[in-house]
Design brief:
By secondary structure, this protein is of the alpha+beta class. It is 40% helix and 18% strand. It is built from 15 helices and 16 strands. Bound molecules: zinc ion.
Length: 482
């Protein structure tokens, strides 16, 4: 970015809440059911029906408000947001307007160099989702209204973000929190977490905001970062060429890596809000607030600190392990089986996460149970198998659902700790490699590794490395003296 300029970015994040039923009726929120089957007169907006608020929605959103340092307003109200859209049979969406349930919060984002920045949260409110228009399965546009009335939480940030990377970090925190709270699965690719960005640029030092554009359709974390960086550059180029920014809604095209204006057909929402006459104000009194906060789970920051203090993990390990709740849970289950906290953290961070990355799966779908990984670590520490063999056993466990003990037994992988057997092998190797022995005697320390390698090859990696090292050293240094 041209350093004369700075960007001002605010994010609106929509999160689909994991309630069983919809926000104002008893219909299922299940994804993937037959189109237009999860519906009733209420979510279809038939005349004369009355919505009833789902209590869970209030509790979920209050939890998010508490986790993001918001004030939970004792009284909040609903409003109708009127607009026409084919997938909105009611002709309006029930949302919150001037009296949202949560306000004035913040989260801290952390940069790779550990410095942090506070990002304000203007408000968090509840609303219902609209249906879905499907354009790619027929010549006509198809409409599925199953999603009508699915509860949404909208989180609006202050315009405190300055770069695409900051937006990415902020979004990561939001995702982490909703997952820890268990209120949304946080899956951006599947649309349960959606994000729109308001972006403007101005000269550094300027206090007035520039004209903003709104960027939509960024359906992955990386796309949010890319789209925002792209839009910032685009606006700066226009200003540098003497042009002016037009306020408009833009769509990110992830295939072409570019931004295009929404067709006017897609846009032109002229929102009119008015108070929802069918719903009473929502009252969250002290008692209810206390009940809700009693259900607040351990949040990422606290868990991270506990990992550092209780398990003596380096900060870096604790960071990575607590990034997602499911990974932290898995790790804590591993160390129920082994008390080697450090090794367990390395196995999870390096070996497990690598496979999750390669296979693009979540740790909850990982083939090796936390119990079996714990047992594997114990087998190494007890000297039953070497660290090298453990990697093979790990690979085997990925293929078949067996305990490490079973695999070690079946494949005859027990570590050779019998000193006389190892001594015999070492003697053979030394006599077969006289020239390397001479090099060692002449002071070429590096050949030591060569001998270790030979012993390991001969024993297919099963020799106890400590015994091999000690014996080799003794033997070779003995030769040196003579
Ligand atoms: Zn319904």
């Amino acid at each position: 970015m041209d350093s004369k300029y700075e960007a001002v970015i605010g994010l609106e994040v929509h999160a689909q809440l994991l309630t069983e039923s919809k926000i104002f009726c008893g219909c299922s929120t299940r994804f993937g059911n037959a189109p237009n089957s999860n519906v009733c007169p209420i979510c279809l907006g038939h005349p004369g029906v009355l919505p009833v608020l789902n209590k869970k929605v209030v509790e979920f959103i209050s939890l998010m408000g508490m986790a993001t340092n918001c004030t939970i307003n004792e009284k909040s109200t609903f409003a109708r947001k009127n607009y026409f859209y084919p997938d909105l049979p009611k002709g309006y969406q029930i949302s919150q307007f001037d009296q949202p349930i949560c306000e004035h919060g913040f989260v801290n984002i952390q940069f790779p160099d550990k410095s942090t920045k506070k990002i304000g949260i203007t408000r968090i409110h509840m609303e219902e989702d609209a249906g879905k228009s499907i354009h790619d399965q027929s010549f006509e546009t198809l409409v599925d209204v199953n999603r009508c009335g699915v509860p949404l939480m909208e989180i609006v940030s202050e315009p405190d973000l300055r770069t695409g990377t900051e937006a990415y970090l902020y979004l990561s925190i939001i995702k982490q929190l909703v997952q820890y709270l268990g209120i949304c699965d946080g899956n951006m690719e599947e649309g349960s977490l959606r994000c729109d960005a308001n972006i403007s640029v101005r000269l550094k030092g300027e206090t007035k905001l520039g004209t903003k554009t709104e960027v939509k359709n960024m359906n992955s974390f990386r796309n949010v970062e890319k789209a925002i960086s792209y839009e910032i550059e685009r606006q700066i180029d226009i200003i540098e060429d003497g042009g002016t920014i037009v306020q408009q809604t833009l769509l990110w095209d992830a295939d072409l890596n570019e931004i295009r204006p929404m067709r006017s057909k897609e846009e032109a929402h002229d929102y009119r809000y008015f108070p929802e006459p069918d719903l009473l104000p929502v009252l969250v009194d002290e008692n209810w607030k206390n009940e809700i906060s009693a259900n607040l789970p351990e949040l990422p920051d606290v868990r991270r600190k506990r990992f550092i203090e209780n398990f003596k993990l380096p900060e870096y390990n604790a960071d990575i392990l607590t990034q997602s709740k499911s990974t932290a849970d898995y790790y804590e289950n591993v160390i129920k089986v082994t008390n080697d906290y450090k090794s367990a953290s390395n196995w999870v961070m390096v070996d497990v996460l690598k496979i999750l990355n390669d296979k693009k799966i979540d740790i909850t779908e990982f083939q090796i149970s936390s119990k079996n990984l714990g047992k594997l670590i114990n087998l190494i520490n007890e000297g039953t198998i070497s660290g090298k063999i453990a990697k093979d056993v790990f690979a085997n466990m990925l293929e078949e659902d067996k305990s490490p003990e079973e695999i070690v037994k079946e494949k005859n992988l027990l570590q050779i700790s019998d000193t006389s057997e190892i001594e015999k092998i070492i003697e053979e190797i030394l006599s077969k490699n006289q020239s390397q022995v001479q090099e060692y005697i002449d002071g070429k320390e590096k050949v030591f590794g060569f001998f270790v390698g030979q012993v390991m090859r001969e024993t297919k990696g099963k020799a106890n490395p400590k015994i091999v090292n000690d014996f080799l050293r003794k033997k070779l240094d003995g030769l040196k003296v003579n």
